[in-house]
Structure formats: structure tokens, C-alpha cells
Design goal:
Layout (H helix, E strand, L loop, with lengths): L10 H7 L2 H27 L2 H4 L8 E4 L5 E5 L4 E4 L4 E4 L2 H4 L7 E6 L2 E6 L3 E4 L4 E4 L2
Antiparallel strand pairs: 1-2, 3-4, 5-6, 7-8
Length: 134
């Protein structure tokens, strides 16, 4: 049977003239397409970009707009947003400021830094400075 032609063909004559296998395949394909469209609709309504991609805004808070699309990342103190990777990366305070941890060694820790003090010095102020104990 001809499914597409220049002159209109009544759908009833097309369906009844089809072999049973072709008709069943057409119905099965229609059901599958409807199922896929329903699943897509359910997931797109229930899952926003932040939920769909857990690596988005890693180390920070992912914010979405009213349509559920990724909008921005909120990075905590000591982290900065990487526009290429779309994550919050740790800021290496030791590499940025060589004056940190006088009388000790600066150690980068996630979101901050700590001082490993030289002999004769003790850490103070949450391990951010070294004071002389001699």
C-alpha cells in the first residue's frame, strides 16, 4: 500500500490493506515513541541541570533559573569559579601571597591555608601565623 501520495488516501483503507505484521510494527513504534516522549517530559520537568549533572559547580552551590537551567555557581570563601570547567576551584593562597606564614612554611588547604612553623615558633590564629616562643 502507498502511505504517501499526491492525492489523499483515506487512513482506513491504508490501515486495513496493510499486512498484519506491518500494522503491529507501526502500533509498537507509536507506543515506543509515546513512551519516550512521556519519559523526556517527566525527566525534564523533575530534573534541573544541577541535579542532572552532579559535577556542575563542584565544591560550590549550583543555582538554577525558573526554567530549571543552570544559571550560576556560588563558591565558598577560598574558592573561585572556573568558567571552563564550571566548578569552584580552591584558591592557593600560598602561591598568591608569599608573605603568609613568616617564620614557617605556608601549606595550602582546601578553602584556606595553614602554617607549618619553624623550630622555636608556634602556630596561632587558627594556624595562620607563627609566633616566637624563645
Amino acid at each position: 500500500p502507498v502511505l504517501f501520495s499526491a492525492s489523499p488516501v483515506p487512513l482506513r483503507s491504508v490501515l486495513f490493506s496493510m499486512p498484519r505484521v506491518a500494522f503491529n510494527n507501526m502500533i509498537a513504534t507509536g507506543i515506543l515513541l509515546l513512551s519516550l516522549l512521556t519519559l523526556h517530559s517527566v525527566f525534564s520537568e523533575e530534573m534541573d541541570d544541577c541535579q542532572a549533572n552532579p559535577n556542575l559547580c563542584q565544591n560550590g552551590i549550583c543555582r538554577v533559573d525558573s526554567a530549571g537551567s543552570y544559571h550560576s555557581c556560588e563558591c565558598p570563601t577560598g574558592f573561585q569559579f572556573n568558567t571552563d570547567l564550571l566548578i569552584c576551584e580552591d584558591v592557593d593562597e600560598c602561591a598568591i601571597n608569599d608573605r603568609l606564614c613568616e617564620n614557617g612554611k605556608c601549606l595550602n588547604v582546601p578553602g584556606s591555608y595553614a602554617c607549618d612553623c619553624d623550630m622555636g615558633f608556634l602556630p596561632t590564629n587558627r594556624k595562620r601565623e607563627c609566633i616566637d616562643i624563645d
